[in-house]
Write a structure and sequence with these properties.
Two copies of one chain form a homodimer.
Chain A (H helix, E strand, L loop, with lengths): L6 H4 L6 H16 L7 E3 L6 E5 L2 E11 L11 H17 L4 E11 L5 H17 L3 E9 L5 E10 L14 E5 L4 H11 L6 H12 L5 H10 L2 E6 L4 H12 L1 E6 L7 H10 L3 H7 L6 E5 L1 H15 L3 E9 L4 E4 L5 E2 L10
Parallel strand pairs in A: 4-5, 9-12
Antiparallel strand pairs in A: 1-2, 2-3, 3-6, 4-6, 7-10, 7-11, 8-10, 9-11, 12-13
Helix pairs in contact in A: 3-4, 3-7, 5-6, 5-9, 6-9, 7-11
Chain lengths: 347, 347
């Protein structure tokens, strides 16, 4: 997760995608593509692409969810799968400070799916759409013998300049909305049971995993403040996603583990599973909170402002550092802490 | 393929998607969804959705291609798979009379795909993009254990009103660009060999199958003429796609089989395979020609105008009729001809 490192150049031309890694692959594609054409402000490499049409700025994002890779029908009702598939795309729009407008769904239907099942899926999708003012305007449906597939595209709009991953500067504060680790705790409960954790705690973290809330209003306030410098949503884990900001910004960072926001339910489930909840908070992913940086002098004010306007707590968890310092996590005593990287889709 | 028929209402609530059929499924989803929100001119059910942003009109379309369902790596080089995946989405924009602008790719990568393979895929995609002025601006990449997956989204723009499926009126002429059946002939060669057909003929139809040409300039001329009344691209076969126009327009049609444009290579391959090329032209699909209707008095002029401006031949193949007459195909002697329906993704 060190900024500036390129797995592709490390050992000559990599032959397999596993060797290249997800980030290396994206960089590889970005280098090979032609320079973007007319109206393209920002192409591949951020949460969403940015294009201009007349005096309007559009955000475009796509994400595919595959059964067996991103979800299991055994552990997730179809209603939740539909709701989450749209939510993770809406979250990409939120991560640029934009507002989602229209969605398209390419749906791959396995042979055992009934019409009632598909209705459940669309109902969940409709719940997310209604909550965030998104219209599902189109799609494509095909047979998918190997399992359910949902490929969503969301088109959003942003007033003024979208907030990119690349603007963090040494000295900036690092902030995060809501709490981290609950989605990973929920996945642990779904896969291994709740153990001795209270049913309420188990239910809360499962819900966090199944029904993430994209932070649209929060992202809009953060962007409009003018004091935020970079933003991303936490989909692959704090370590990985902060790594993306550092790579794009050419910077390092220090994160204080004791300051990470972790809710009581996640702590209770971690105790029941005999693990350290900090690992889930740092590497778990799928929280879909906003991770952003801001001018140090204005960070506390921005955090308060977001909470005031949206009700969502915001925590300062560290600072941006020069690139040479890399990404360091410090424990409560100020000692460096080794963190395993987050989710790599090819690993 | 009869207009107005709804498979879902035929036998009560259908339990499986196979019973419902592809068109029945789309109608089912369309009925269940909330009414489209702000800025949505046209939602699910046409080649592309139509949304407005300020004084601009955007077209949005998505199509997923799955290995084993839409293509086989055994018969199609990855470069062609990439080129075609984007081409079929560009064709949906062309079918509304619009111009493609930006594309997004959600790519599912099977374990055996090398970086060189992915480069081939992107190179093919880039060829289609460059040819039609499309910028690939974003994407998502994920592991796909069951096979290669390409889910493309294209955003296009249209000046004035896009040409929909729903405007055909009894008496209108039915026209088609280019030729029909070559893609089906190509698939036959790829799957069963060329037989006694000349290598040049076999190569020509294989190319038609692997590298369809979306008719962007043609669609734009047809829309701008003001005399066309409905349009669709031929993806699932003339019978099925004309059926969509009839269903949306509440009309019937008569098509003269002897007037269908079929090229010499397709005829030669049909002879070699001992089949009637008319079947390929009517039910084969994947030609990605434009099928459109126009005011009878202006149809011949429009056909000439398209050819003059784009070089692409246009043929008048039939007329729109009242809904009660259904969709009829007449042979050279004017006798009704039974046509099997085209491709249904759930059948």
């Amino acid at each position: 997760v060190t900024a500036g490192e390129d797995p592709a150049s490390a050992g000559g031309r990599a032959g397999t995608l596993r060797e290249l890694g997800e980030r290396g692959f994206i960089d590889h594609v970005r280098r090979r593509l032609r320079p973007p054409g007319r109206g393209v402000t920002l192409g591949i490499g951020d949460d969403a692409a940015v294009v201009t049409l007349g005096d309007r700025t559009l955000l475009l994002t796509t994400d595919a969810l595959l059964e067996g890779v991103h979800f299991r029908r055994r552990t997730a009702p179809l209603r939740d799968i539909g709701a989450k598939a749209l939510a993770v795309n809406v979250s990409d729009i939120a991560a640029m400070g934009g507002e989602p407008r229209w969605a398209l769904l390419a749906l791959g239907v396995p042979p055992d799916l009934s019409v009632a099942d598909v209705d459940e899926l669309y109902d969940g999708l409709g719940e997310t759409a209604e909550r965030h003012g998104v219209s599902l305007v189109g799609g494509d449906t095909t047979a998918a013998p190997a399992g359910l597939l949902l490929s969503l595209t969301v088109v959003g709009e942003v007033e003024g300049a979208p907030l990119r991953r690349s603007g963090a500067r040494p000295g900036d504060a690092i902030l995060v909305t809501g709490t981290l680790g609950a989605a990973a705790a929920g996945l642990a409960v779904l896969e291994h049971g709740a153990g001795s954790a209270a049913p309420e705690a188990a239910e809360a973290v499962c819900r966090a995993h199944r029904r993430p809330t994209p932070r649209v209003a929060e992202g809009s306030v953060i962007r409009a403040s003018g004091t935020a410098t970079a933003m991303i949503d936490v989909s692959d884990g704090l370590a990985t996603d902060l790594g993306h900001i550092l790579e794009e910004s050419g910077a390092g960072a220090v994160v204080r583990l004791a300051d990470l926001p972790i809710d009581d339910a996640t702590r209770a489930v971690a105790r029941a599973h005999g693990v350290d909840e900090t690992g889930w908070a740092v590497s778990g992913g799928e929280d879909y909170e906003l991770l952003f940086t801001a001018d140090r002098q204005h960070a506390a004010t921005l955090a308060r402002d977001v909470t005031l306007k949206t009700g969502t707590p915001v925590r300062i968890v560290g600072e941006i550092a020069p690139a040479a310092e890399g990404l360091r996590f410090l424990d409560a005593a100020g000692r460096p802490h080794v963190v395993r990287p987050g989710f790599d889709h090819f690993a």
